[in-house]
Design goal:
Elements: H1 4-11, E1 16-19, H2 21-30, E2 40-43, H3 52-64, E3 70-73
Length: 80
Amino acid sequence: MPDWRKLCCACRNCHIAVGTPGRVSSLLQSGALPAKPLSMLVLDEADQLMGDSFYTDVAWIYDQLPKRKQVSRGECSSYG
């Protein structure tokens, strides 16, 4: 289990965040990743983002971010 106090200090002034919707949502809800300083968010699992299972998380995350933001999606998995 990560030390949330260290993570919170590292993310306090974070302007760019990259992660899966579930992880980003969890970090925002716990306060470890404050939404206010974020200006860009990259969500991983792009191949699944439009599915019903991610819609609630993505919509909630989007609502937490500042009005001025960039949101991107990506797929970081490698298929051999």
